[in-house]
Amino acid sequence: MYILTDGLNYGAARLIGEAVAQEKMRHGMGSQDEAGLGSSKLGHITAIGVMASDQLSYGQLIEETSSTKDENVVLVLENVGDEKHELNPHHSHSIILSCAEPADKEAVQNTVFSMDTRLPELLYSQLRERKTVKRESSQIHDALGLQLREKSSIPVVGLMLHGGPAEIDRVLWLLKKQVPVVVIIRQATASGLLAYAFKEYLRGDGSRVDQILKPQLMSRVQETFPEYCGDSELLRQQVRDRILDCVKVASQSDRQILFLLDPNNPAEDLKDLNKFILAAILTVRRGTEGLTKESINWTLRLALRWNRVDFVAKNILNPNFISRFRVRDDIFVEALLLRDREPFVELFLSMGFLLQRLMTYEQVLKLFEASLNEEFFVTICLKNILRKKEVDLGTRFMHEKNCELNRLLCMLSGLTGLVEPSHLLLPQTSKTNKHILERRALLTILYWAVLTNRKNLVKVLWERSADPIAVGLVISNMYYRMSKYYIQDIDLRSEIKQNAIEFGALAIKIMDLTFNDSPLLAFHSLTNPIPEFNNLNVVDLALIGNNIFFIAHPCCQRSMRERWFGNIKIKSYGSTLFNKFPTMDMMWPLLEFLAEVSTAAVLLLHLLGEYLSFMTYKFLMALSLLVVYFSAMRGMLTASPDLGPMLVNVTELIRKDMINWLQLWLMWVISGGLAIQSVIYPAQPFSLDILGRALLRAILGIWLTEIDDLDGRAEDSLRSNIFYLSC
């Protein structure tokens, strides 16, 4: 990091120098603790001060020493307490300008301004010449280079903190150069006077300025700078006139170049300082070349690092100004990698950013390589789940379909092949539908967000998924298995388990909304196979994750009941006998007709005086009772939405199983009956009568045994048919 100030031990430069010293001390104390934990390396802070020699109390001494030809001269400077004209000791570098005309303040300011704008480009050119640069630092330098290689120059913004008469001159010079200035208002300082004058100037006309503003400003200048002005009326008028010149230049510009920040205003805060600086930078970009793609991307990167999505949504990517804008890929990747930048990701996606542009093997691998600096991914995913000893992805992490990434996702979700490395190699030449590619890209980034414990980012991506119910169940299952099997820390386990509960509840909520709006659509959404999840449907995913709350949903219960009942469809729940189920209307009317005919025949014979035996009456009554009983079951059970389909289902199962059983049974009946017949009556010749008796014996042998077979007849025995021959 490079910081440019005026280098004096006074005002903002002094505050910045003290902050740099504290930051270096904090980094020095924490470097040993942070080593080896996978954290990112701390960047070196370089504070450079640029000032004129006549601004220093020992400026003349420095010029005299520098005029000598001896390059090894060491000059020891000691601050004596005159802070306003001394170097700040916490700056690492100081650039002292020697001016030919020290009284010419504008020339000094022009030189300092030129240094401020050209020094960053010089620093980057030196960094680019270094050949031995590590990968991590090269990424930082490349990011810096993307900013410095824009078509426009580096924007400069003035920041006024408190201040005195000299700072008023500086602000006036910047405003004349059309450089935006951010003024932090504080009463009894130059910033307070400038803010008061600017507000009053915008309220009235020329007469109000002459009659009211000038006299009041004159008295305020005397109250604010009593030591500087003293009793001199001329000094007070000079300060007042310079303030009015600042106001006139700012008001006459075709764009806003003066921004006021009042910390005492409840609607504003010093935390919003970066927002005002962004507004000033946007003014510079818009004024020099308009809102081009390069200027927008440059401002987006700065706003992204300062996490000012509210400013971007209002002033840059506002639908009223820009309907569609293509954000650069590197900016979107940076939004993914930085923490708490989910609003930026959501905003970029709403502007039409296509995730499939990131679906290359190098881009996806770069996301996971960047996660090696995060303790959660290294400890939980690599060490606890994959059992890796070294903190390195290796060549097999995304090498093939059965790679370590898919194995990691399978252990958490129960699904195989969620990421296809072959689809990442040649995405541009693929003939797959763009919508399918976008769905795959979203799911791939979503898996990465789950593995790095970025719940808010997961939620943003889940809201844009094509199958929110299925994706929510998969995410819930991944979080649940992660918390149950692979996390030992109690607090972290509770957090991850709560994430699983939250996404499971979101899936149920979407199911409720869909079911209330269209039950038929909700039912079909549960049964349609999803190609991205091994062609399983939503019910299968809920069963894999053992999500009992989702399974208990009425629509899910209906789907499971339909699966159990097969293709049985209920036509009506009426009370008539023939308006039930088509599979039962073919059998029961015939049986009812036979029972009624047999009952009528018995009654007719009884009237004609033909009496039957008691056992015959009993048999006929039992048979009629069974027919009536089963007929009543048909009329009652089939009217129930639960028992009716179950009865039909059991009937269909019995009918199919009975046919299969009869086919097998007949084979044993024929062969077994003939074998038993030949064993019992071996002497009988084969005839149709014998065949019929054999089959009848085998069929009825399940329930009874023929008595004649037990008695045995001599004429049928083998001994009685043996003839003895003698010679």
Helix content: 55-70%
Q: Taking all residues together, what is the mean pLDDT?
A: 78
Oligomer: single chain
Report the structural category.
mainly alpha
Strands, count: 6
**Radius of gyration over alpha carbons?**
46 Å
User: How far apart lie the N and C ends?
Assistant: 133 Å
What are the segments in which pLDDT stays under 50 over at least 5 consecutive residues?
Answer: 30-42, 131-152, 571-586, 717-727
Overall body shape:
elongated
Strand content: under 5%
Largest sheet, strands/sense/barrel: 3 strands, parallel
Organism: Elysia marginata
Keywords: Ion channel, Ion transport, Membrane, Receptor, Transmembrane, Transmembrane helix, Transport
Protein name: Transient receptor potential cation channel subfamily M member 2
Domain TRPM SLOG: 2-233
What labels describe this entry?
mainly alpha; 3-stranded parallel beta sheet; 31 helices; 60% helix; elongated; disordered C terminus; TRPM; transport; TRPM_SLOG; monoatomic cation channel activity
In short:
This protein is mainly alpha-helical and 727 residues long. Helices cover 60% and strands 4% of the residues. The strands form two sheets. The chain has a three-stranded parallel β-sheet with strand order 1-2-3, with helices on both faces. The protein has a three-stranded parallel β-sheet with strand order 4-5-6, with helices on both faces.
